Description:
Elements: E1 8-13, H1 17-30, E2 33-37, H2 42-47, E3 54-58, H3 67-78, E4 82-87, H4 93-101, E5 105-108, H5 114-122, H6 130-140, H7 147-153, H8 158-175, H9 179-190, H10 201-222, E6 224-226, E7 229-233, H11 239-249, E8 254-260, E9 266-273, H12 281-291, E10 295-298, E11 302-308, H13 312-325
Parallel strand pairs: 1-2, 1-3, 3-4, 4-5, 7-8
Antiparallel strand pairs: 6-7, 8-9, 9-11, 10-11
Helix pairs in contact: 1-5, 1-6, 1-9, 5-6, 6-8, 8-10, 10-11, 12-13
Amino acid sequence: MEMVRRKRICISHKKDVDGIVSAALFKRARDTEVILADYGDIIDHLSQLRRVDELYICDLGLNKSTWPEFYKLIQAIAKHGQVVYTDHHPMENDWRRALKKCGVIVNHSINDCAGVLSYEFLKKELPHDAHLLAAYAAITDYLDGGFLAKKIIQQQDRQFVLLEATLLSYALARRGGDEDYLKKLVSELSNMTPPHRITDVLHDASEQAERMVYLMTVVRKLGSMRKGYASICTEEPVSGLVANLLLGAFQVSAGIAYKLSPKKDTYDISLRGTEDCRCHLGEVASYAADIAGGAGGGHAKASGARIPVEHIEDFLSGVEEKLLETK
């Protein structure tokens, strides 16, 4: 008798190493079809799903604007299949309870990244070298000090892991808009190929390093100081890298980089902070985005938002207001 293959899908964040690694781990362990998504199109992807036996959602944090429709779609999917939600972004307790009530397995912690949480969830089904992928995710997501990540990383040669993680991160920054390239990374990583051996990764990472040297000069010229932080409008694919450069260029504890979305009707915004930044940037992004008619959130030192183009000044003023409260 022929066995019927179960329909297994992993929807994971496409914009960073954490999401790519999570997708690779589920592809390897559960033989999933992979759909790479962003925060703004997760609802579109979910609404196109038909009967699914197993659905794994990784590194796609929720916010007030996406939650109602997300929950409605997940409720329907969970009636006929298993759903596992793996994430590390701040999450409302009511949302967690609601997901669990409809049968979703919630694999969540703000202390470790999605790649590490995915690895721990699947560890018994993965080859030994899979722990390296989890380490790459933790380092590039600035969560290498997490309870689980720390144990993984301290058992490796740190310089090797830092090198491989940076190669992957820079290659992704250089070619992240190429869907075929992203799929290749997921496939190669699922086969446990070290990043430096993946075709084009060394070359692309080197090009991105050169780009970073150029951007250091550009950021100093085009960035501007506001009360409590520095900001810049950028065309770079990964605005988080530019926000990081602002910190050193202007010797500030918080930097904001924003870029036009492909449809040119919204700005995608990245906020980054140093250890000296006393405000929780996830809370800052959420507060300012509410004022500007958008959505935002994230972690203490790294967060993001999406807001209508016409309200960018409202957002920046909201950030300024929150940061000055802690001065």
